[in-house]
Design a protein that fits this description.
CATH architecture of the largest domain: 3-Layer(aba) Sandwich
Radius of gyration: 18 Å
Largest sheet: 6 strands, antiparallel
Distance between the termini: 31 Å
Number of strands: 11
Strand order of the largest sheet: 4-3-6-1-2-5
Helix content: 10-25%
Shape: globular
Number of domains: 2
Number of helices: 5
Oligomer: single chain
Length: 232
């Protein structure tokens, strides 16, 4: 897979620690859930590379990546502190065939995200027209909810439940706790659907907790697809 030049067309501050970067790049068509690699090369030849899930829907004019600013992250620090509209970045992709959802995948859909793990699930939500979809999204605070306004606007066709772990929830239907079997069971009982496809994305510890809760609630492991990144 060859590296291509991607041009930053737009940058949006999504939360205090997260920005969305919109690229114009001639990649092949992607499926919801896939990712791309970004490579930076310094003048002395040193290179840093990072993978980011695609948040934009398949077929969108611009490719959107969600980047959380990690102080120790070479690529995220460059994108947040240095990159500006018009900059050219090396990119390759789309990559990945396991953690994908396609419009031919019918049936109730359960999505579970932690933090910036919402990115690939957002591509699915932006593609899926059906109403039998449940999103459970865990963040530290209300201000940390990436795509908050867009997700709230989706609530008419997608059931959206926020788990706010470090402050009281703002909505009656949300929870002020981490994900566990009790929360999952309560939300799914209210939803009233048996999921046919389940996607979980977030930090390793979050994904492990969510997957354990799903299996404990009787969700077949075979229908659970997980994507994780490092950290807690």
């Amino acid at each position: 897979m060859i590296w291509q030049t991607a041009v930053i067309e737009r940058i949006e501050q999504t939360t205090p620690r997260v920005k969305s970067f919109f690229f114009r790049v001639a990649l092949e068509h992607h499926d919801a859930g896939q990712h791309v690699d970004i490579r930076l090369t310094a003048q002395d030849g040193y290179q840093a590379q990072r993978s980011y899930s695609i948040a934009s829907a398949p077929g969108a004019e611009l490719l959107e990546l969600v980047v959380e600013h990690l102080p120790e992250g070479e690529v995220s620090s460059f994108l947040h502190d240095v990159a500006v509209v018009g900059d050219e970045i090396e990119m390759r992709g789309p990559i990945g065939g396991h953690f994908v959802w396609r419009q031919s995948d019918e049936g109730p859909l359960l999505l579970i995200a932690g933090g910036s793990g919402i990115a690939p699930l957002m591509a699915m939500l932006r593609t899926r027209p059906a109403t039998d979809t449940l999103l459970i999204y865990s963040t530290r605070t209300w201000e940390d909810v990436i795509f908050r306004d867009e997700l709230l606007a989706m609530d008419a066709r997608v059931r959206v439940i926020f788990l706010i772990t470090r402050e009281l929830p703002r909505r009656a239907e949300d929870f002020g706790t981490r994900i566990d079997r009790g929360v999952l069971g309560s939300v799914m009982k209210q939803w009233g659907c048996a999921p046919r496809h389940v996607y979980v994305c977030g930090a390793t510890s979050f994904v492990e907790a969510a997957a354990t809760a799903l299996v404990d609630e009787g969700i077949p492991a075979a229908i659970i697809k997980a994507e994780r990144y490092g950290g807690a």
